[in-house]
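Example record

One chain of 820 residues, shown exactly as stored in the release files.
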Amino acid sequence: MKRLTVMLLCAGMCFPALARKNQDPFPHKKEIYKKGWIDFNKNGKKDIYEDPTQDIEKRIDDLLSQMNLDEKTCQLATYYGYKKALEDSVPTAAWKTNILKDGIANVDEHLNKEIGDPNTLATALAETQRFFVEYTRLGIPVDFTNEGIRGLCARSATSFPSMNGLGCTWDKELAYMQGVIEGREARAMGYTNIYAPILDVARDQRWGRWEGSIGEDPYLVARIGVAMSKGIQSQRVVSTPKHYVGYGDCKAARQWDSRTDPHITPSEMYYIHEYPFRKVFQEAGALGVMCAYNDYDGVPMAGNYHYLTEVLRKEMGFKGYVVSDSYAIGRLNGVHKVTPNFKESGRKAIEAGLNVRTEFNDPTEYITNIRELVLEGKLSMERVDELVRDVLYVKFWLGLFDNPYTGSTKEASDIVSCEDHLNTALRASRECLVLLKNADNMLPLQTRYRKIAVIGPNADSKDYIPAHYGPMGFERFYSVVDGLKSVYQHDDVEINYVKGIDIVNPGWPENELMCDTLTTGEQQSIQEAVELARRSDVAVLVLGDNQRTSGESRTRSSLDLPGHQEQLLEAVVKTGKPVVLVLIWGRPATINFADRYCKGILAAGYPGAQGGLAIAEALKGDYNPGGKLTGTWPKTVGQLPMNIPTKPNANWEPMKYHSVANKGLLYCFGHGLSYTTFRYDDLKIDSVHTQTANVKVTCRVTNTGSVAGDEVVQLYVNDVVSSTTTYEKNLRGFERIHLLPGESKEITFNIVPDDLILINEQKERVVEPGEFKVMVGSSYEDIRLADSFYYRSDIATDGDLQPIEKGKMIDESNFKEEKE
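Predicted structure tokens for this chain:
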């Protein structure tokens, strides 16, 4: 029965939950709702699993003992929501006879694109939940899952910068606040599980999903990820980070069916790709995780017992449930060819430890296959019970067996996109801005220029805000043109706009492989831009990426500006007028021409719906940008791979040798300028010789300029002599601080043994005695202060534990100390 029971009415939307043809097939079973508990199995007595006072493990044991095979297997699959797999917006009579009659683990993205009013959405999700509580035998509630990497993926939710923008803030407090807001808005609308943050460590700048990654350094990804995950779960909403694990390093950054074959050594897998997940599970207690598409060393993650069970649960201490990235299980036979058919793929995934198959289509075949495998003796009931237990644990943690109706049907509209949330999102849009170049103090513009030409395809567009995995239908949007008109509305400054060129030209992306000529229309539009620039005092070019050039399955073969944007830039520069480039980017770009000829360059990593206002404030000078890059920006794609952390000299390019590859960097990791200047001094290490490998490092930073500003103070550590090669600089601390002119602040960093772990020749994880160099600075290359400490003992301890003998593998659970 296909119908949407959500109706548009005049000024808004209402939800006639019971406006059904003929008799309502689901009258309310009010009798099951008792004082202080719910009679989920409708037997008239309070079972242990229904008793909120009982221990969670006892409740799970009791519920599992009552579940039959059909009910258990339904807890191992997702049913995608309305217009994806579900044909109905709310339950219909058909649900009493299809697979849903026995329950389901979760319903994903249900109605998130269909309903704009949060109160109505909360009502619709509650009506869906009511079916599972009142009309399945045991009343097991569903977990309502949803995406949330740039704000919750729902209409009217608060729009934040994408993960690349969030990374550029280097602001752990802000990441936490974003998580709180996403969790709060999710709870208000009825969602209980958010697929965020993305913890993929990006290693190739061509990768389409760079815009969805925090950056290329595992420590930065971990600290921002821990903060965001904590924020989400503080609202009693599950944080489900993704994509576990190694997904950020697929061969040549290829995507779609070639998301496979990461060229990663076991130590690199540990140092780089496992690191953020380990920290988020151990410190934030994230109760969800999405497994990745890729294989590692020939074993696909969706069927990888070592990574899904031994590493994830036994080493990292993960306690929640694993969902598959869509099609990950089917790819075991369809792409990876490690199983003969879909049924065997399911068996392999379950035995490996993958709890819930999450895919865009009807899960009936998958669930039926599991039932058959158990009855055929090919899959043990014990293994099924183990995986179901994980799912139930999450549902009990969420409180769904105490209050399954989590949405605020009357207050959601007051919570979602409220003024406080929008203000925090605007703060994020501001903090993600990175000042790449500012020759002759070109910026801020202030009111020195009376006629400002605003030119470019991203100047007056929403297309750089990906709707994929994020908010839709947001009401408060500022383009750069809107923002400039707003900040200059009370000044005698004229703002004029022409587009000049599209993001890409006809024939994209095939024509990226060879230069083609400008069309007549492009020539005319570029000429319009040139004429406007000539009539103006300064030109602001807003170029870069949008959803056609960056995002999932948008891997590129070049890092140059897409389409014919470079021709537009060159034409405007040739007018002789001062040019400021605003680069709205999804991935690092080889903007060599702009770096040489533009006076100022301001980079904004997909800055969210209010990004245009933040950009305008920074251009005028109402806001002083203080963000830092989270990746290495090469001068040419031919230099790749090039990233940090890097082994000694792996990125070294001696300029005296003039080969094509030896070009140096355009911008290094951590680079970002300010309208003010900062002095670093007074570096102190509390233990020059330590027996514990616990060290406190302090330094002082002073604003030596004339305006207030933010600085991101970065601490790097190097193991000077090690038994196996290690990275030349490991980021092991950072703080974003705000300083008034002349103000100083002491910054403290705590180094713990986990920061110094090395995998030795025996494949043991150890802290080796010797010298460790400490470097503090404003970027990876701009090191201002340096000193060393020495770990001299033959034992390593965190001070509270028994000593660990030299050479013995370190138990990382000893080092879960929070560093924020």
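Notes: The chain is about 25% helix and 20% strand.
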